[in-house]
Amino acid sequence: MDFDDIEKLLREPIRNPFGPFSKVVAEYDAVSGSAKRPTFQPNDGIADAVLQNGVPKSEADGHPVDWHIGLAAFCSRSSRGVIGEIAAEHFDAMVELYRVWEDIEGSTFAEPMYRPRGTPVGDPKARGAQLVPRLGIPDRDQLSDHYINSVLRPYAQAEIALRRRFFKAIQASHKNREWIGFRPIHAGRFVPIHPFAGFDGKGGYAIDRATYLEGFGISEDEFGTANFPHMKPYESQESWVFLVAECGSLLTSPCLQEEHPGAQTRSNRIGRPKGTGFDNQDAPFVAMGVQFIKDRRANSATEAARLILIDHFEEIAGNGEWESKQSRIRNKIIKALK
Questions:
Q1: Does residue 327 fall inside a structural domain?
Q2: What is the largest CA-CA distance in the chain?
Q3: Domain containing 298: what range?
Q4: Closest C-alpha to 183, from 64, 71, 66, 84
Q5: What pTM does this model have?
Q6: pLDDT tens-digit profile of 30-40?
Q7: Closest-CA residue to 166 (of 248, 67, 91)
Q8: How far apart are CA 139 and CA 279, in angstroms?
Q9: Statement to judge: residues 91 and 214 lie in one domain
């Protein structure tokens, strides 16, 4: 946030609960779930391919089945495929929220930060002075109502909004068949987690606080609990298993399709086959992306392509913008991984 942004906030009243953090939430809305990802085809019999008598297989059609184990996988940036991407998008938004707060600190927008000496402080917790405890704010009991209501409370409300959107991104990804999941029942057998049922059996995809914090590596004391009520973990959730379409490409076709359901294709297309432009020039970057994923430097083809573009954008052939080059390299990495 630069000086002009702060001046604008000073001139205009806050018209939404997120105040100076609204842009972070809006940008997360724009990015979350926007990437085109591989999806499982409807009615492809994938459950029969990866379960044997209701038990998850370690191999199918001679290929290893790359399971994610436990609901906490959705809160780990090291998870593979779309699950790791969803976690990374959410984590990045939380980091950006903190960066905006750092920009605000010491600005005229944050003043007055403290009450005048001798002013009764009332109940600091009731006033909201203890919200977002990980922010390094000294003398919280003396924080002004202006700072609490213009900075601290909007920060806490933005966190809630980002978390709710995170759960919705998981739900949207499941409905789009970008991953499938199974939960255990009696006798060690597993049954599918259906999109209409969600994690809780009622269509909800909220993840309990303990699992969320453990997955993202955040302590209870650092995060605080005022805006994240306790929820009992789902039964046996540490044993749930998930398979993402991108990693499911280890299984033989026709388990996957490259585009979302409903994407248009042209079998009589004239000219070069789609996606083969700059094959020779792109080859070393595709190999680099594949190695990034094998070395776990990247959680997905999307992340691998992004890392490559950061260092090699000008070297990558073509006159396209960042998005088109990243999409091209990403698609070729996915193809190379098959």
A1: yes
A2: 81
A3: 279-337
A4: 71
A5: 0.69
A6: 887 667 778 88
A7: 91
A8: 60
A9: yes
